[in-house]
Specification:
Length: 160
């Protein structure tokens, strides 16, 4: 499954694996953590900040505190369930990690409206192989961001 294309629901096996990962590190999958994770899953592709996650979780779980969301987001990032993104907007944003992905996907960022578009597929496999061979360097991950104008902003620019 590619990131951001389909709504991803955790399978029973993935939930069990998450519970196991949490337990190994001395944590439990509490109702609050599950609510936060469910919100991240439902919002896949939106690249939410911790504050935005909090606002959405609060709708279903009004007793939850912002500090709990921050702690849980950090924990889920540490466990590689989600990953932190820097889209150069001054905010840390998060997205779900899918186990079948080798690397983070690439992002197109509109410099006019701020829209973020996810590029599917790893476009850098050949380049990675060249770098690994030339520099004797094992690449584990990469992050690529392209900046420009989305189709809506291009259209608006032509209309003016």
């Amino acid at each position: 499954m590619k990131w951001g294309i389909f709504m991803h629901r955790l399978s029973i096996g993935e939930i069990e694996k998450l519970k196991s990962n949490l337990k190994e590190k001395g944590y439990k999958l509490t109702p609050q953590r599950r609510a936060i994770l469910d919100t991240i899953i439902k919002s896949e592709g939106q690249h939410l900040t911790a504050e935005e996650i909090y606002e959405l979780v609060k709708l279903d779980c009004p007793e939850i505190g912002l500090a709990t969301v921050y702690r849980t987001v950090l924990l889920l990032d540490e466990l590689a369930v989600i990953c932190k993104l820097d889209l150069n907007d001054g905010c840390s944003r998060y997205e779900l990690v899918h186990q079948d992905e080798n690397h983070q996907h690439h992002h197109l960022i509109c410099t006019s409206c701020g829209k973020v578009i996810e590029v599917q597929g790893d476009l850098l496999e050949t380049l990675e192989k060249t770098i690994e061979d030339k520099y004797d360097f094992e690449i584990k991950n990469h992050s690529v961001k392209f900046y420009g104008l989305c189709s809506d902003c291009q259209s608006n620019k032509q209309i003016k």
